[in-house]
Fold these 2 entries.
Entry 1:
Amino acid sequence: MRNAFHEGLDHTSDQLVEMTRLAGSAIARATTALLDADLAVAESVIAADEQIDRIQRELDELALDMLARQQPVATDLRTIVTSMRMSADLERMGDLARHVAKVARRRYPDSAVPATLRATLLEMGQVAERIVAKAGSVIASRDVALAVQLEQDDDEMDRLHRQLFNQLLSGNWPYGMEAAVDITLVGRYYERFADHAVSVARRVVYLVTGEWHESYDPTAAHTP
Amino acid sequence: MRNAFHEGLDHTSDQLVEMTRLAGSAIARATTALLDADLAVAESVIAADEQIDRIQRELDELALDMLARQQPVATDLRTIVTSMRMSADLERMGDLARHVAKVARRRYPDSAVPATLRATLLEMGQVAERIVAKAGSVIASRDVALAVQLEQDDDEMDRLHRQLFNQLLSGNWPYGMEAAVDITLVGRYYERFADHAVSVARRVVYLVTGEWHESYDPTAAHTP
């Protein structure tokens, strides 16, 4: 029998999936804004972040309410606390998409991305979109095998991030310091976006298996 | 009368203060490693981060244990959940200090900091040290007036961060791209370090007053 408590847990799971959808849309559009120097798209990403923030606040209130009223223990308690952490990760991913959009806006009407780096940044955007979509599927399905795939996507993001730095440091950079600073920051934002998506997937694995991979540090920097 | 539950809360508060002490020591030594190109100090910062991570894990376990056994409501519940968020902020501050130390290590035996930027980065290190020390005092004293001071320190950090970028973008940068990338990342690490310290102080204010300043976004980027 379903009760109010399990309805609360189901609602939380649905809203976490919704957050992955919003974060995915945000990073996809931020990438477009960045590559096409599209101000309207950049502004829409910046404005839409409030929606993700609002869902996080609602989920936090719901979690506190469930903790206070239902006094859960064991798995239910772990699920609620872990959900709060997942929503914090997803909220941060929204921020990072917004940061990318802000770089696009700052450089408008110019593009922040030199032509030689467009392909790499396009790929970073695609990996970011893919990894957050998979994080949503992992939340919805609790599929541990799929969660492992996110690690590979994250490795791919790290590879692209290193490639971006190698291109920056290749000794031939005619685009000036401002572009170098922007690319450095944007690269970091994409890489952190993927880290948080992996963190979300790891938290689902933790809920399903009870195991947390200590050796893995989702907050580690992968800068050169 | 003190009971096991309130002893748990007191222990948590003490350990959060200890985390501010460790994060403060880490950022101070990371700044030294960076400015003096001191490899031994850099290595010690990188190794010591595990200590902060361990305290966070212990506090998380204690929090889950208190939630399950004591089934707290109202203020006690809010205190435990907020403490988990503070320890996450402080753990992240340790990571950021480690990231600074890793930049120092990567560039050894060279210094990652060109002579013209030493003064600015020294000041950023000092503000970081000061703001985390105040965060510790705020946790220990629950002094809301002191918490407001951290906002000013954060404004000072933002000013220094902008100054760093202005120096980078001044049109006269003879130090090469690698130094530019390092300085961009290091500037971001210090700025995020201060953001998380402000977040800790805000959470204490929230516990004391019940008010959260929505207008304030501790996770916002202050990049140019």
Note: Chain B is about 80% helix and 0% strand.
Entry 2:
Amino acid sequence: MNYSAILLKKRPDITITSDIFEKVSKPVPEIAEGEFLVKQTHMSLDPAMRGWMSADRESYIPPVELGEVMRSSGIGDVVASRHPDFPVGTRVMGMMGWTEYFVAKGGLSPVPTSVPQEALLSVVALPGVTAYHGLYEVLKPQAGQTLVVTGAAGSVGSMVGQLAKLEGVTVVGVAGSDEKCHWLTETLGFDAAINYHDEDFAAKLATATPNGIDLFFENTGGVAQQHIYQRMNAHGRVAVCGMIADYNTATPQPGPNWMNIVRKRLMIQGFTMPDHFHRFAEYGQKLAALMMDGKLQYRAHTLHGLDSAIEGINLLFSGENKGKLIVAL
Amino acid sequence: MNYSAILLKKRPDITITSDIFEKVSKPVPEIAEGEFLVKQTHMSLDPAMRGWMSADRESYIPPVELGEVMRSSGIGDVVASRHPDFPVGTRVMGMMGWTEYFVAKGGLSPVPTSVPQEALLSVVALPGVTAYHGLYEVLKPQAGQTLVVTGAAGSVGSMVGQLAKLEGVTVVGVAGSDEKCHWLTETLGFDAAINYHDEDFAAKLATATPNGIDLFFENTGGVAQQHIYQRMNAHGRVAVCGMIADYNTATPQPGPNWMNIVRKRLMIQGFTMPDHFHRFAEYGQKLAALMMDGKLQYRAHTLHGLDSAIEGINLLFSGENKGKLIVAL
């Protein structure tokens, strides 16, 4: 029996084009003692994958080598096993890549079969733990503060806002469409949401943050950044998680002048989750518990079939995805 | 008997011009019970004073009100006293302003008469404690790291570099003249010093920091910032203390794009000392001990007479001062 996988064949120039990938068909391998075979059912598509495709040796984890299966996290079921801890039927989550089957000796985490895979990938996986770490370890929210999150309808931003609401924080989301903004306020309970395409974005931001901004969770860069930065309060804290607006541009926009950093004594901290892998389980358990209590909503934008990943990943950079982008295999 | 003081009469437009000040003559007042009279002998001129002149209510301390004596720190001797803790002959340091005499009920700190006033204002006063706080509380240096400090020949920068050298850190200073750079390497023992006017600044910076930059103490903003920022190592730390290049410009330069903040997981922290007044005594004692041991060098650039403050303060912004700018009265 054969299965399909998608290899990275070329580095992307600026945007991700389909010719940088190659689909291959391989026989499903026999497993050796201590190994198990996973049939992947759901792959997660995340903005961080753009960085993994580039040969930037300065990035926080090594790039995918050319000719390797494209890296991604996902969920699957163990369909053959010679490993005592991963019997057939175990559902596992972890880095398996763009492939229908994956042979492992470990390195994957068992997950409950009672929770939909989309929920696990949306809340408990990378986006959720990223939101959790950035909010609690970097921003350190206090009740009564005002938080602004960009990419607010994305898989990270939507979790940041919901977790902050649970802490008694006033939450303002910035997103790229009125539909997303409506979802943030009506379904997720954000106090306000602003479309960054609005011409009067700055005025709307001022209206939504009458007491200024204490906490800024930055996912996107782009035009909103300058306006949010200007409204930061003294001792404001900024978690910089992503610059999605700049990933696919040759000439990233300049940042704001640093004068405000002194005047307001701002703290700006960049972070990426690979530095904090040892806390994944702890964060995941807390997120799972909140989700089970109905306190964290999510929406998944599900594509179908391995091939859909190739074009689908660009939805993250155009902002056309509505919710956590997932490929169901 | 009369004495002179200088009042702030207008807000500066962009640069500081002499017409924003007014010199007045007043009779030396009688002191009441609980008061003491200080004859100021040395006033400190510091870049932060530019901010105190502006009506920017968002700044970290309130501006000087129009018609008030211009704010500054200084040293003087008690010449009349009805306060038991400050007998005649006590030498005191603190905020007295641009004035020859000052009546106080407290709020000033006794300092030893055995140490030259220039040394106290250069090492133990605001510049020294600012350097101490920024280095130890924000940058947290570790032996073997590489630190770059801008405004390196200034009163804060020169202390940052010397303290860091004591911690086993490789120290590279950025200053505005070859003479200053020579002083940094030959007298203060910096590992390298680069003139930011050099056309090949970026290349020289790369040569001086072969292992990248772990710690960045930013006093100035301006052209050097982008180059230093680009060479930051993963988990680099940045203390933002001042933007002297931008204080007197109507259109401050943009800062660097934030992508590197994520990619390198940088921590950028702005700070100003008024937030940390409660630690002045602790820092001052440590600095005084190091100075007495001959481990901290300084140079004072001393002007003479109250009037000299008016034109003299601009030396800080043109970079023409050589060392801690002080007015001897």
Note: Chain A touches chain B through 36 residues (CB under 8 Å).
